[in-house]
Amino acid sequence: MHHIDVTFPVWLQILGTIGLAILMVWMLRSMTWDEVFVPGRVQHFLLATLVLVVIWSLRAEAVDGLAMHFLGVVAVTLIFGWRLAILMVSLVVVTLALIGIVEPMLVPLTILISGVAPALVTWGLLQFSERRLPPHMFIYLYVVGFFGGALSVLVVMAANSLVYGLFTDVAWESIVREYLQYTPLLVLPEGVLNGMIITGLVMFRPEWVITYSDARYVDGR
Question: Which CATH class is domain 10-219?
Answer without folding.
Answer: mainly alpha
